[in-house]
From TrEMBL:
SMART domains: AAA. It comes from Aerococcus agrisoli. It comes from the Bacteria. This is ABC transporter ATP-binding protein. InterPro entries: AAA+_ATPase (IPR003593), ABC_branched_ATPase_LivF/BraG (IPR030660), ABC_transporter-like_ATP-bd (IPR003439), ABC_transporter-like_CS (IPR017871), BCAA_Transport_ATP-bd_LivF (IPR052156), P-loop_NTPase (IPR027417).
């Protein structure tokens, strides 16, 4: 059984059907990418999984449990954590306070401290900036805080929405490396990316979305060499 199973999911914004019946699965231990152009429905898919946006029909089953209608709070408690597009660090709060917000469902203070130390290992820069207002960090640093914050809820499944967006090349490389390290340490990852080449390179499997539908799926390596993907998303490279 897959860790996450999405079956014939449909999601609408008023009259606009953003997701027109998609099915996909994520197995434990995998990095799975969703690639596709702007407006394809990738963010909507993640927001529906995390309980922020309600589904119109279809089902989302996580670890054998139907979470299609579950609240965002209970979904976090079940082990799914999302890093939203645009990062959204909490302004007017220090980096440390931001990290603690990620742990709001937890009461185990000792383990929490250990997890914060682990976050510093992935993102050493965070430790130097703990008492700084998170909003004053650079884009790349804010991305790291947002990812560290998501890790503080000890997710089994991490949902990442465009983690490389707007980042300098050096930061992009670093973020992809860290995603791989987080995955190797046992966290399953569902990743949305415009940066298709890098996403496919680190992904076990991937799905291509076009206007609310999944049009292609395969291993990361298969899609990297697919003519269709190369033409549409890799600039014919
Ligand atoms: P992007 O990379 O640009 O975020 P995406 O693949 O993540 O694209 P979505 O953001 O999921 O796409 O959008 C899917 C469709 O739903 C688009 O047609 C978009 O205009 C529409 N949409 C998204 N959010 C809303 C909203 N709050 N109200 C109305 N329509 C929306």
């Amino acid at each position: 059984m897959a860790m996450l199973e999405i079956n014939d999911l449909k999601v609408s914004y008023g009259m606009i059907e953003a997701i027109k019946g998609i099915s996909l699965e994520v197995n434990q231990g995998e990095i799975v990418s969703l690639i596709g152009s702007n407006g394809a429905g990738k963010s909507t898919t993640l927001r529906t999984i995390s309980g922020i946006k309600p589904a119109k029909s279809g089902s989302i089953v996580y670890e054998g449990k139907d979470i299609t209608k579950a609240s965002a709070m209970s979904i976090v408690k079940d082990g799914i954590s999302q890093v939203p597009e645009g990062r959204h660090v909490f302004k007017g709060m220090t980096v440390k306070e931001n990290l603690m917000m990620g742990a709001f469902t937890r009461k185990d203070r000792d383990a929490l401290k250990a997890d914060m130390e682990k976050a510093f290992e992935y993102f050493p820069i965070i430790k130097e900036r703990l008492n700084q207002d998170a909003a004053t960090l650079s884009g790349g640093e804010q991305q790291m805080v947002a990812m560290a914050r998501a890790l503080m809820s000890q997710p089994k499944l991490l949902l990442l929405d465009e983690p490389s967006m707007g980042l300098a090349p050096l930061f992009i490389k670093q973020i992809f490396n860290i995603i791989q390290e987080i995955n190797e340490a046992g966290t399953t990852v569902l990743l949305i990316e415009q940066n298709a080449k890098q996403a496919l390179t680190i992904s076990h499997r991937a799905y291509v979305m076009e206007t609310g539908r999944i049009t292609l799926t395969g291993t990361g390596a298969e899609l990297l060499t697919s003519e269709k993907v190369q033409e549409a998303y890799l600039g014919g490279a």
